[in-house]
Amino acid sequence: MISKVGQIMLYVNNQDEALNFWTDKAGFSVIAEDNNGQGMRWIEIAPTKDAETRIILHNKELVAKMSPDLNLDTPSLMFFSENLDELRSDFLNRNIKVGEMVNMPSGRVFNFADNEDNYFAVMEKK
């Protein structure tokens, strides 16, 4: 039911400096930038406008406050699914550690952990 790796979430100390690096030096383009109105800034970048996999620049300090269990020292994978509720239910039935459903600027998402407590996310894409 997971259809592809859609995003890599990169946790950075300074979103503006990271954005400048990726766009000015590495040649990436800004695909989208949004704010949830509560301080969560979402910056989506990619090497080309039509790239299927994109990088999301997240504020490390803010994410750490919201999700203290996440390992923010490495990027996280964001999987896409067309039926998020069914997938989450299936994971729960398989005794996978699953987080609550969260509404983000770009859609609903939930986290899940593997056997070593590495966290991943799945976002609904229809």
Question: How are the SSEs placed, and which strands pair?
Answer:
Blueprint: E1 2-12, H1 15-25, E2 29-35, E3 41-46, E4 54-59, H2 60-66, E5 76-81, H3 84-93, E6 102-104, E7 107-113, E8 119-124
Parallel strand pairs: 1-4, 5-8
Antiparallel strand pairs: 1-5, 2-3, 3-4, 6-7, 7-8
Count helical runs. 3
Low-confidence stretches: none
**Can you summarize the main beta sheet?**
8 strands, mixed
Overall helicity: 10-25%
**Record field, number of beta strands:** 8
Looking at the structure, what is the overall shape?
Answer: globular
Per DSSP, what share of the residues sits in E-state strands of 2 or more residues? 35-45%
User: Element order, helices and strands?
Assistant: EHEEEHEHEEE
Mean pLDDT: 88
Taking Cα atoms only, what radius of gyration do you get, to the nearest Å? 15 Å
Q: What strand line-up does the widest sheet have? A: 2-3-4-1-5-8-7-6
Secondary-structure-based class equals: alpha+beta
For the termini, the CA-CA separation is: 12 Å
Describe the structure.
This protein has an eight-stranded mixed β-sheet. 22% of the residues lie in helices and 41% in strands. Strand 7 and strand 8 (119-124) form a beta hairpin. The radius of gyration is 15 Å and the shape is globular. It contains three helices and eight strands; from the N terminus they run βαβββαβαβββ. The two termini are 12 Å apart. The chain has 126 residues and is an alpha+beta fold.
